[in-house]
Amino acid sequence: MSAEHAPVARADFDQVMVPNYAPAAFIPVRGQGSRVWDQNGRELIDFAGGIAVNVLGHCHPALVGALTEQANTLWHVSNVFTNEPALRLAHKLVDATFAERVFFCNSGAEANEAAFKLARRYAHDLFGPEKCEIIAATNSFHGRTLFTVSVGGQPKYSDGFGPKIQGITHVPYNDLEALKAAISDKTCAVVLEPIQGEGGVLPADQAYLEGARKLCDEHKALLIFDEVQTGMGRTGELFAYMHYGVVPDILSSAKSLGGGFPIGAILTKTDIAAHFAVGTHGTTYGGNPLACAVGEAVIDVVNTREVLDGVKAKHDRFKTRLEQIGREYGLFSQVRGLGLLIGCVLADAWKGKAKDVLNAAEKEALMVLQASPDVVRFAPSLVIEDADIDEGLARFERAVSKLIQG
């Protein structure tokens, strides 16, 4: 079989793809560590991490090894059978967390879909059909399926697709009084991101998560943590709930869980999991051997003191320099986040212009993200080398300097 491919270019996107994305003008073709090369051989530094996915950077030997070995062994058998990589990964997730049971799927949206369905089924079985209401935060993001996009607190993503799922209330994030006013005996679940990701890299207050846990207990509601973006070492702990010491009833994970290979999961307790009896929920590819083999390699590397402590040290390296740049150029007013999920909040004069910062960074061969139009987001590899951090931030400073000069 020939490895020759027909040449393609960015213009092909506009010919053959559904226009729901507006991708950059260049096409990345190869990655190694925290560096990426485009079709013209230009080298970029990657502070975007595939939107908090490439937890070990590009082509990490442990992940390449796990995928290659599994690719030569067994790809797919369906859920008529179980498989060894899925069982091994489930054991490792259970051993490392509060959880006793794991359900595997393919994405963060699917993980949240499963979490919300499980919460409703649990409440339905124990308390009856009236207890079905879900409380979420404004500006939250939980996925793009109809259910998850309805729970997400950003109407721009859920408007225009017909009737929304009923029984969902949104309250301001980090506002315990608002949550207290909204919760009732009809509430089956409260769902929160420990750090709002797409909403602007906004960490929860300690007292807020503690209060949410208490309110859920009082009202026999489940507390769901969406850790799709914060999980797998991103905050310097394996999951962000560990940083806060507040334990959820259900936790959703994806993104970094596969280090770039699509996989999602929910973690929960045995008594809750029991309500997903045989036939109640499923997924064709969920728990497939390829994804689980890679996921196992990810947790083996990430869930070590060396890597988790490294994340905290790298956070300080980023934050110190970013605050310096912020002060010098007056571009952003605050640097916030945990571990290697960092947001630079744009100053009033630059509000709404995060995309301009992204474009300026790209001109300096640096990949960064936005989280809302007011926040520039960094979600690099957890094992990014200090030299790459320093060089990337030098490029970022050049980009900021040119942007300011107009």
Automatic annotation (TrEMBL):
<keyword id="KW-0028">Amino-acid biosynthesis</keyword>
<keyword id="KW-0032">Aminotransferase</keyword>
<comment type="subunit">
    <text>Homodimer.</text>
</comment>
<dbReference type="GO" id="GO:0003992">
    <property type="term" value="F:N2-acetyl-L-ornithine:2-oxoglutarate 5-aminotransferase activity"/>
</dbReference>
<dbReference type="InterPro" id="IPR049704">
    <property type="entry name" value="Aminotrans_3_PPA_site"/>
</dbReference>
<comment type="pathway">
    <text>Amino-acid biosynthesis; L-arginine biosynthesis; N(2)-acetyl-L-ornithine from L-glutamate: step 4/4.</text>
</comment>
<feature type="binding site">
    <location>
        <position position="141"/>
    </location>
    <ligand>
        <name>pyridoxal 5'-phosphate</name>
    </ligand>
</feature>
<dbReference type="Pfam" id="PF00202">
    <property type="entry name" value="Aminotran_3"/>
</dbReference>
<dbReference type="GO" id="GO:0006526">
    <property type="term" value="P:L-arginine biosynthetic process"/>
</dbReference>
<dbReference type="InterPro" id="IPR005814">
    <property type="entry name" value="Aminotrans_3"/>
</dbReference>
<dbReference type="InterPro" id="IPR015421">
    <property type="entry name" value="PyrdxlP-dep_Trfase_major"/>
</dbReference>
<dbReference type="InterPro" id="IPR015424">
    <property type="entry name" value="PyrdxlP-dep_Trfase"/>
</dbReference>
<feature type="binding site">
    <location>
        <begin position="108"/>
        <end position="109"/>
    </location>
    <ligand>
        <name>pyridoxal 5'-phosphate</name>
    </ligand>
</feature>
<dbReference type="InterPro" id="IPR004636">
    <property type="entry name" value="AcOrn/SuccOrn_fam"/>
</dbReference>
<feature type="binding site">
    <location>
        <position position="283"/>
    </location>
    <ligand>
        <name>N(2)-acetyl-L-ornithine</name>
    </ligand>
</feature>
<dbReference type="GO" id="GO:0042802">
    <property type="term" value="F:identical protein binding"/>
</dbReference>
<dbReference type="InterPro" id="IPR015422">
    <property type="entry name" value="PyrdxlP-dep_Trfase_small"/>
</dbReference>
<feature type="binding site">
    <location>
        <begin position="226"/>
        <end position="229"/>
    </location>
    <ligand>
        <name>pyridoxal 5'-phosphate</name>
    </ligand>
</feature>
<feature type="modified residue" description="N6-(pyridoxal phosphate)lysine">
    <location>
        <position position="255"/>
    </location>
</feature>
<feature type="binding site">
    <location>
        <position position="284"/>
    </location>
    <ligand>
        <name>pyridoxal 5'-phosphate</name>
    </ligand>
</feature>
<feature type="binding site">
    <location>
        <position position="144"/>
    </location>
    <ligand>
        <name>N(2)-acetyl-L-ornithine</name>
    </ligand>
</feature>
<dbReference type="InterPro" id="IPR050103">
    <property type="entry name" value="Class-III_PLP-dep_AT"/>
</dbReference>
<dbReference type="GO" id="GO:0030170">
    <property type="term" value="F:pyridoxal phosphate binding"/>
</dbReference>
<keyword id="KW-0808">Transferase</keyword>
<protein>
    <recommendedName>
        <fullName>Acetylornithine aminotransferase</fullName>
        <ecNumber>2.6.1.11</ecNumber>
    </recommendedName>
</protein>
<dbReference type="GO" id="GO:0005737">
    <property type="term" value="C:cytoplasm"/>
</dbReference>
<keyword id="KW-0663">Pyridoxal phosphate</keyword>
<keyword id="KW-0055">Arginine biosynthesis</keyword>
<keyword id="KW-0963">Cytoplasm</keyword>
<comment type="similarity">
    <text>Belongs to the class-III pyridoxal-phosphate-dependent aminotransferase family. ArgD subfamily.</text>
</comment>
<dbReference type="InterPro" id="IPR017652">
    <property type="entry name" value="Ac/SucOrn_transaminase_bac"/>
</dbReference>
